[in-house]
Write a structure and sequence with these properties.
The chain has a seven-stranded parallel beta sheet with strand order 3-2-1-4-6-7-9, sandwiched between helices. It has a two-stranded parallel sheet with strand order 5-8. The chain has a single domain (6-196, 215-245), classed as Rossmann fold (3-Layer(aba) Sandwich). Helix 1 packs across helix 8 (218-229), helix 2 runs parallel beside helix 4 and helix 3 (94-104) runs parallel beside helix 5. The model has no long low-confidence stretch (mean pLDDT 94). It is globular and about 60 Å long. The chain is built from ten helices and nine strands. Helix content is 48%, strand content 15%. It is of the alpha/beta class.
Length: 272
Amino acid sequence: MANQKTVLITGASSGNGEATARLLSQRGYRVYGTSRDPAAAGQWPGVEMLPLDVRSDESVAACVQAMLRQVGQIDVLINNAGYELGGALEEISIDEARSQFDTNFFGVMRMVKAALPVMRQQRAGQIINVSSLAGLSPMPFLGVYSASKFALEGYSEALRHELRPFNIQVSLVEPGFIKSHLASNRQYGASRISEYDTWRHRALAAIRQHEEKAPAPSLVAECVMRIIDSRSPKLRHRVGRDATLISRLRRFSPEAFFERGVRDYFHLDAQK
């Protein structure tokens, strides 16, 4: 296909990444997905899987170079790889928090730094960073995960300003609750402080309830497709009714009203 765009998607073995890789390949893009274990990932027409650990500088460099050897360009980079770390903030060790940031935030930085030299040379490109509702309003007992997404929000906004002179677009996808493997693969802090048990249980149970009623990852894939198709995509793109509603409430509601709403949403003050 003439002028066929090439896309690199991190974390494409399941969930939002898989749905996005499938949709883009169906729409005629040349798609490279990544996984720490490509042999264990599924095989989909039009999607070539590459090994990648976003926590490793060497792995990131090898992945990008492998793609460039085959096609010589990167038109779209979609940073989707990540995981959730659950637990009260007092329970999370510094090493656990560092590991969370190393994947969710520094992993994005590594990928961007590896892709930018070729994008600047092309004088064109697009970077789409998958954030979260937790990057708009922090979720209790997913506090370090929320912090990593808040960091990603600030990084992406600054990056958008810096890359505009090079005709490189930067956008954020901010999904609310999505029925994906992110929830089933959630990790938890090794320590437990019993005084938090009641509220931790309530919050995580509420999160599970919201996840069970959540839309499929195809909603995220369709949003990414719209961003790529747009000539002038905006910075932030909310996905799902909950992300849209909560972002508006946070922006326009009095702080005390919004705080009460968050506690109610996660059942923190439930009587039973």
